[in-house]
Every structure is written in C-alpha cells, then in structure tokens.
Amino acid sequence: MNGRVKCSSKFRNKNKPRSKRIRDLQRLLKKNSLPDEVRVASKSTLESLLEKKEITSAKVSQKDLSKKYKMVKFFEKRKASRAVAQAEKKVKGGDISGGTLNKLREAQEFLNYIEYFPRTQAYISIYKQPASEEALKLRNKILKSVNNMVANKKLPQALGWSKFGASTARSSESSAQVLEKNEERLTDDFFL
C-alpha cells in the first residue's frame, strides 16, 4: 500500500469544496438511470448548496463594498455629525430661526443616509455631486426612503460621533427632540 487510508464516500464529499459538490450533483442529476429516491435527495441537497453559495457570495460582495467605501463613509459621517453638533449648539443657544432648524434637519437626514445606506450597493456620496443623472436619482430615492423609515420609526435615529470618535447617544436630548420642541415653540403664539 502507499500509506493512504481509504475513507467512505460519505466523508469524502464533506471535504470537497462547495462548487465541486454542486457540479457533481448536477452531473448526477443529468443521468436518466437514477432511482427516484436518490434523485429527490440529490435535488434537495443541490438546492441547499446553491442557496448557501448565494448567501456566501452576497456576504463576500457586501464585505468588499463596505471595505471599499469605509473611509468615504467615515469622513462623511464626521462632516455630518459636526454639522448636527453646530446646529444643535445654535438652537440651544437660542437661535431658532428656520434656517438653523433646516440645517439641523438636513444634517440629521445626511447622517441617517450615511448610516443606513444599503450595504449591497456601491455607496453614492452625499456631499459630492454624482457623475451621472441616474446616480443622483438613486441617491435621492435612497435618501428619501431611509428618512421615511426613520420618521416612521422602522429604523432608529442615526447617532453622531463624539470628540473621541466613538458613536454615542446625545447626553440630554437628541436632535429630533430638539427639532420637535422648537417646532412647537414656533407655532406657539407666545413666541410670535
């Protein structure tokens, strides 16, 4: 003997790569002289392997896209969270003009967009003008849908960055609470 130990086919198939097992099962199913029990078992195994392959490939592409756009999203998130902090500071300082509240709302919407952008798509920058009209329409569509989901409380409000770089909750009030209070103030007759 050559020193190799033979093992049963049951264990040999487990060690084969998934793509080879899929190809082997597809070839097996092409045979006409296959018993019905074997054909049914092979089909179910093939379907489960194809499903696992699809899930794995989606995860790999998602990981590649997140790695590719990590730096862009980081800098945009910092920019948006700084804009939120500046607008909140102005609002807390007493400046409750419409422009300040609009800046706060827009910055919070941008922060939501950056945080909840679909990980299965190539990231479209929120601050840089897209090269094509298609990309601009897609960006606006995603921006609108993400912020609608946040407004309908299907997604939590995105949080900004602290001075130390960690994502933290606002200490006293979130920007959404500040916006709600100031909208109430603007509609109140006392402040008019």
> What general form does the structure show?
elongated
- Classification by helices and strands: mainly alpha
H/E topology pattern: HHHHHHH
**In this structure, how is the largest beta sheet organized?**
none
Q: Number of helical runs?
A: 7
Work out the strand percent: under 5%
Mean residue pLDDT:
79
Low-confidence stretches: 162-173, 188-192
Number of domains: 2
Helix content: 55-70%
End-to-end CA span: 98 Å
Provide structural commentary.
This protein has 192 residues and is an all-alpha fold. It has two domains: 14-65; 70-191, no CATH class. Helix content is 66%, strand content 0%. The chain has seven helices and no strands. The chain has helices at 9-15, 18-30, 36-68, 70-92, 98-116, 133-151, 175-187. The longest helix has 33 residues, at 36-68. The protein is elongated. The termini are far apart. Mean pLDDT is 79; it is low at 162-173 and 188-192.
